[in-house]
Amino acid sequence: QVQLVESGGGLVQPGGSLRLSCAASGIILSANTPGWYRQAPGKEREMVALLNSVGSAWYADSVKGRFTISRDSAKNTVQLQMNSLKPEDTAVYYCKVATAWGQGTQVTVSS
User: Fold this and answer.
1) What is the pLDDT at residue 104?
2) SS3 111
3) Which residues, 6+ apart, have CB-to-CB distance to 90 below 8 Å?
4) In Å, what is the CA distance from 13 to each residue of 1, 33, 40?
5) Are 16 and 28 in contact (CB under 8 A)?
6) What is the mean pLDDT of residues 30-38?
7) For residue 55, what are the contacts with CB-CB under 8 A and spacing of at least 6?
């Protein structure tokens, strides 16, 4: 059974940074394509970043140059470094691998 647990969300001022982490069990992240998604109030869930097994990454246009996805194969975790955060980045952020989703972590960008 695959389990994903996100951490690292919180409240940050515009221009600040946060680092999200997703710990996986029951699946090897480095052999799959884990991704980060987000859902803002009243909006559909959207892809933020993906990282495939050979290390290629894809980003939503809205976060390119500000967010970086990475993984720690030894710890079987995937991270999302978020810099230059904007109020429009406010959302619940989810980790996804194959068909499994984490429970989500809230990110709020506000002054």
Assistant:
1) 97
2) coil
3) 40, 107, 108, 109, 110
4) 37, 31, 17
5) no
6) 95
7) none
